[in-house]
Specification:
14 helices, single chain, globular, Rossmann fold, alpha/beta, 330 residues
Length: 330
C-alpha cells in the first residue's frame, strides 16, 4: 500500500550556514517576507519529511525553511553525546535565524522536532513568534528523570532505554538502512486502544526486537513511494543513525536543564495538530495542554498514524494555512 496523494515537488537546493559550531544544511522556499516558518523533523527523518508542506506553504506565499538538523542528512554532527542536548538543538535554530537576519520565527515540529519547538520558547522566548506541535504535545517537566520512569514502567528493553547503550542500537539500525526506514515509516494498524487491548507480550515497546523480526518483503503497509524511500535510505546509508540516537541519549541531561525553565508558554500563539492513530503519541497526551499554554488551538487529523505530515499532507497543510492566515495574516 502506498500513498494516494501525488508526489511532492523535489526540495529546493540545499544551502548551508556555519552556526553554533556546525555546518547546518537547510532548504528555503517562498518569498522572503513576513514571519518565516521553520520546520523541525524527528527521528529517523530529514528535512525531506516536510516536502509537502514546503511546496504548499511556499505556493501560498509563505517563507519556509527546513533544516537537516544536527546529525542528520547533510548536517554532520559532533561525536560528543552532550553536543545533542536541548541547548545545542535549539541553539542551532537560533543560529540559523541569525544567519538569515530574522528576529522571530514560527517553529513547526514533529516527533523529536516537536520536543525542540516546545522547549524553544522557554529557552529563547524573544526569538519565537509561534509554535506548532505535530503529534508531539507540550509536557511540563516530569517529576523523575524520564529514563528512570521509562525503565520502571517498561523495563530495560523499552526502545528509549535501549538507545542509551553506546553503539548497540546504532549498529542494528545501520546494518540495513532500507529495512530500518521501512520498519519505522509504516501506516498505522489501529488505535492506541487496539494496542492497549493486546496481550502484554504483544504490547512491547522493544522496537529493536520487532525490527529484528521484521520482513519488509511481506509488509503491505508502506506509504513512501520507491523514490521517496530512496531519499531516506541514501541519507542514512551515508550518515548512519548515531547522530539521531544521540538526541535520545540527552533525555536525562535535558530533564536536569529544564529545572531552571518556565513551566508555561504564554503570550505566543500555539497550535497542536494531533493524529488519531498515533500509538506512541496519541491525541490524549494533549488533553491538558491548555493548562500550560495561554493561546492554544487543537486540530485532529483523522486516520493518520505517526508520520502525519507525510501520511496526510493535504489535511496538515490545510490546518497550518488556516491557523497561519488567522494568527499571522500576510
Amino acid at each position: 500500500m502506498t500513498a494516494a496523494h501525488p508526489q511532492a515537488p523535489p526540495l529546493p537546493e540545499p544551502q548551508f550556514a556555519d552556526v553554533n559550531g556546525i555546518r547546518l544544511a537547510y532548504y528555503e522556499a517562498g518569498p522572503r517576507q513576513g514571519v518565516p516558518i521553520v520546520f523541525c523533523h524527528g527521528f529517523p527523518e530529514l528535512a525531506f519529511s516536510w516536502r509537502y508542506q514546503i511546496a504548499a506553504l511556499a505556493a501560498a506565499g509563505r517563507w519556509v525553511i527546513a533544516p537537516d538538523q544536527r546529525g542528520y542528512g547533510l548536517t554532520p554532527g559532533p561525536e560528543a553525546v552532550e553536543a545533542y542536548d536541548i541547548d545545542c538543538l535549539t541553539g542551532d535554530l537560533v543560529g540559523l535565524l541569525d544567519h538569515l537576519g530574522v528576529e522571530k520565527a514560527i517553529l513547526v515540529g514533529h516527533d523529536w522536532g516537536g520536543i525542540i519547538v516546545w522547549q524553544a520558547p522557554l529557552l529563547h522566548p524573544d526569538r519565537i513568534a509561534g509554535v506548532v506541535g505535530l503529534n508531539t504535545p507540550f509536557t511540563p517537566r516530569l517529576p523523575l528523570d524520564p529514563i528512570v520512569m521509562y525503565r520502571n514502567a517498561f523495563g530495560d528493553d523499552m526502545y528509549i532505554v535501549h538507545f542509551q547503550k553506546p553503539g548497540v542500537a546504532d549498529a542494528q539500525l545501520g546494518a540495513d538502512p532500507e529495512k530500518t526506514i521501512r520498519f519505522f515509516m509504516r501506516l498505522p494498524k489501529g488505535t492506541q486502544e487496539d494496542f492497549l487491548s493486546r496481550p502484554a507480550e504483544k504490547r512491547s515497546l522493544a522496537l529493536q526486537d520487532a525490527l529484528a523480526h521484521y520482513d519488509p518483503a511481506t509488509d503491505q503497509n508502506q506509504f513512501l513511494t520507491p523514490d521517496e524511500l530512496a531519499v531516506f535510505v541514501e541519507a542514512f546509508q551515508r550518515t548512519g543513525f548515531t547522530g539521531g540516537i544521540n538526541w535520545y541519549r540527552n533525555f536525562t541531561r535535558n530533564w536536569e536543564r529544564a529545572e531552571a525553565l518556565p513551566r508555561r508558554i504564554d503570550a505566543i500563539p500555539c497550535l497542536m495538530i494531533m493524529a488519531e492513530l498515533d500509538v506512541v503519541l496519541p491525541p490524549s497526551m494533549a488533553d491538558r495542554m491548555g493548562e500550560q499554554i495561554e493561546d492554544l488551538e487543537k486540530v485532529l487529523i483523522e486516520g493518520s498514524g505517526h508520520w502525519t505530515q507525510q501520511e496526510k499532507p493535504d489535511e496538515v497543510n490545510a490546518a497550518l494555512l488556516d491557523w497561519l492566515d488567522r494568527k499571522f495574516p500576510q
